[in-house]
Amino acid sequence: MDRTRHQVWRVLPPAREDEGSGKCRLSVGTMRAMGLSLAAPLVLRTPNKEVLVRAYPSRQEGESALVEVDQLVCRALASGMKERGGEQQHGKLGGDGEEEASLSACSVVSAQSVSLIPLTPCSATEPELRCHLERLVVKSDFTVGSANGPFHFRVGSTVPEAAFVQIHSSTKMSLVTEHAASPLELGLHTQRALQSKQTQTTTDESEDEAPTGETSREKQDKGKGGAIDSIGGLKGGLASLRELVYFSLVAPEALKRFSIEPPKGLLLKGPSGVGKTLLARTVARHYDIPLVAVNGGELYTAYAGQTESRLRKVFEKAGKLQPSIVFIDEIDALCPKREDAQSTESRVVAQLLTLMDGLRQRTRVLVVAATNRPNSLDPALRRPGRFDREIEVRPPDEDERLDILRVHTRAMPLHREVDLQQVAGLTVGFVGADLAALCREAALLAIKRYLHMARDASSGDPTPTAGHVTPEDFEQVLAKMYGSCRRGMIVDVNKTGWDDIGGLGSIKQKLMETVEWPILYKATFQRFGIEPSRGILLVGPPGGGKTTIAKAIASSCNQSFFSLNAASLYSPYLGDSEALIRDTFKKARQNSPAVVFIDEIDCIVAKRATPGEGSADGVQARVLSTLLNELDGVERSAGVLLLAATNRLDMLDSALIRPGRIDQVLQIPLPDQQTRQQILEVHSRQMALEPDVRLATIAEQTESWSGAELQSLCQEAALVSLRRDLLAARVTMADFATAKRAVTRGLSLREWSQERQEKGLSWGV
Question: pLDDT above 70 covers what percent of the chain?
């Protein structure tokens, strides 16, 4: 079997998730032909470079001559070296082009020790080095990492002195420097380096905000290009912004040829933390265009006329630097609606309008503004000639969240069990800033765990997970974090699983199909052309478990969950109720997939006026109209499911209960004997019961009892046991008998059915 393959390869850079891994992805056919197993060591040789990699199957089918190479461990050959400023630089490998290269399988032995020569400042400890480099294949004189990465070394000596060695958890790692530091000093240097890095990050951020004129946020930003590839998500907004900046500032001749005026302004709108400011700064860096940034709220002063003067100076500075971008962050604080504004704010709005209209004389200045409250802006700004285009930067969907997580964890030592796809699915409602904070907090947990174990001399070497970010780290952070888009609207419900609901097997199955299947089997739904349900109505007598079912959905469906009720909805002010419904559905659309739960919906919306019948008052009619529009109006609530509950189906307007709005009406009957026994088992599983307690007998004696009444029975029985003896260890059958007489019953099934029959109503619609 040929263990070397020499041919013309199409060499590509690695996928984002493979960066820093030392992987080489080959076609399955090539791996079979070369007899390679998974993670087998390989040497990729080109005329200018040697790269040590490990073989993995390619994700692209049908491309036998394609390789994706991560150049983590490499060595430049004499023919490929370039001299620049006395420093040697490697020739570039991979760039989506064909290149003559050979792939050879190589034999490796386990490394007992490896010495590394830092090429960039490094004060890592031995466990940290082992954590970063574990499972890599190295050789003397090869470099590991890159100058722009978290580490950059040249391999010195190895033991044994074999051609290729592989680093394992038992390999002794050492840094070869002019001053040999003790392990204790290395540990102190590590902590200082961490503190220095955090300080440097803060300094860099504060330098971005440093004053260069009248305002504290104003600055000229001429960052280097190439940062666009490091942005996760935001692809739609990024493409639109790049297009506008390119035709306005980089190549305005294309517009002049068609006698088109270049755009003067662009408004970025979206929730806080979604990445609006990042977009503007990244595009400016990409095209090497000066960015004059200012925060809207920081322009104001206590002296009349100075705010307008500061604003003029910003535009004057941009004019001197043209082509340039004026970036106004939080523009809603600078230019609110003039009918609601004070005199100073009105003058500032008028000044900005004048300056933007005057941009015709400075055709290579573009105004980019960002806001999370676009409806608070003065309408005069939102027209062609001023802000010609508006780009909505939405919260990322699951694929975009995965992309963002890969960016922020690219340089992190992740444990092999970390599934970023699963983390992305658990972060509904998270924006880019939230995901960055999530990764940072998870890494801090890993660092604390590592430092704790490193200080504990009795524990010996740290465990394999001590230097890695583990799934448990992400789980701990997620337990305490909510997405920015969900704050203020999130409902904190008690964790309730489907197992906490006794009986109702068919109802639970139907709800799981309606709520979970459109997400789990999205491709299948699209293939069959199935539209997910828009609404579900739970109908049943009081205490039947409707609200408990809603809690189970909120806890288990992994979707954003919003709740409305009459107490929170109605307001003495005209229009507030309708506005709350609109805001709730807007938040739900931003955080889709989402569930909006309306309990006792008959108290909120009722039948509209019909001749000879009672009808809803004006507020209920307006609320109903708003709800109908949100369900299937002009702006469809894609990915939003309405879940409503009622025990008065006759009170609801018929326009609400039809396909496209509330598609399904699920009847929640009172439990039968078997279901009652299951409910009793659920609510008594935390109790210690005497052997004489027969839950089947209790279920037989509680005909027509609701789930809420059975729960109350179990709690009352426990209280009876404590009243009898505070040190009682178990609940007896006599305690249940006493509790049964004490529980206050609600409306029985017979009474509820009789009431409906008297009104001429049935269970169905």
Answer: 76
Radius of gyration of the chain (CA): 33
CATH class entry, domain 8-78+99-105? mainly beta
3-class SS of residue 217? coil
Cis bond before residue 323 (omega within 30° of 0): yes
Residue carrying the six token digits 């998974």? 38
Tokens in use for 178?
Answer: 């002019």
Gap between the Cα atoms of 500 and 81, Å rounded: 67
Number of residues that make up the chain: 765
Cα separation of 46 and 51, whole Å? 9
What is residue 53's three-state secondary structure? Answer: strand
Spell out the alpha helix ranges (H) of 544-575. 546-556, 566-569
Name, in order, each residue with C-beta under 8 angstroms of 596's C-beta and a sequence gap of 6 or more: 562, 563, 564, 584, 585, 588, 640, 641, 642, 643
Question: What are the backbone angles phi and psi of residue 390, rounded to the nearest 5°?
Answer: -120, 130
Q: Could you give the C-alpha distances from 134 to 119, 406, 467, 733, in angstroms and in order?
A: 19, 20, 11, 62
Provide CATH 3.40.50.300 ranges for the chain.
234-392, 498-608+618-667
In the chain, CATH 1.10.8.60 sits at 398-475, 673-759
d(CA 158, CA 428): 47
Quickly state the pLDDT bin for 438 (edges 50, 70, 90).
very high
Tell me if residue 367 falls in helix, strand or coil: strand
The CATH architecture that domain 234-392 belongs to is 3-Layer(aba) Sandwich (3.40)
Stretch(es) of the chain classified as CATH 3.10.330.10 = 109-179
CATH match of 673-759 with 1.10.8.60: yes
For 109-179, CATH number?
A: 3.10.330.10
Burial degree of 537 (CB within 10 A; 0-12, 13-18, 19+): buried
State the Cα torsion 111-116-122-126 to the nearest 10°: 30
Taking alpha carbons only, the member of 420, 415, 475, 479 closest to residue 450 is: 415
| pTM exceeds 0.85 | no
pLDDT tens-place string over residues 620-643: 788 888 888 888 764 556 678 888
The DSSP bridge partners found for residue 165 are 109, 138
CATH architecture of 498-608+618-667: 3-Layer(aba) Sandwich (3.40)
- How far is it between the farthest Cα atoms of the chain? 99
- pLDDT tens-digit readout, 37-96: 888 888 888 877 888 888 888 877 666 778 888 888 888 765 443 333 333 333 345 444
Q: Own/partner pairs for 691-697, CB < 8 Å, 24+ apart?
A: 692/732, 692/733, 693/731, 693/732, 693/733, 693/736, 694/733, 697/733
Q: Is-cis flag, bond preceding 160, omega within 30?
A: yes
Architecture per CATH, domain 398-475, reads as: Orthogonal Bundle (1.10)
Distance (Å, whole) CA 570 – CA 620: 9
Q: Find all residues with CB under 8 Å of 439, minimum gap 6, and list them.
A: 405, 408, 409, 412
Tokens of 479: 């337990």
Helix (H) or strand (E) holding 56: strand 49-57
Distances (CA, A) of 352 to 305, 326, 349, 363, 738: 13, 12, 5, 16, 77
DSSP result, 394-430: PPP-HHHHHHHHHHHTTTS-B-TT--HHHHHHH-TT-
At residue 217, the pLDDT reads 38
The Cα 698–Cα 710 span in angstroms is 10
Identify the burial level of 41 via C-beta atoms within 10 angstroms of its C-beta, where 0-12 means exposed, 13-18 middle and 19 or more buried: buried
Distance CA 3, CA 404 (A): 39
Distinct helix (H) and strand (E) counts, the chain: 25, 26
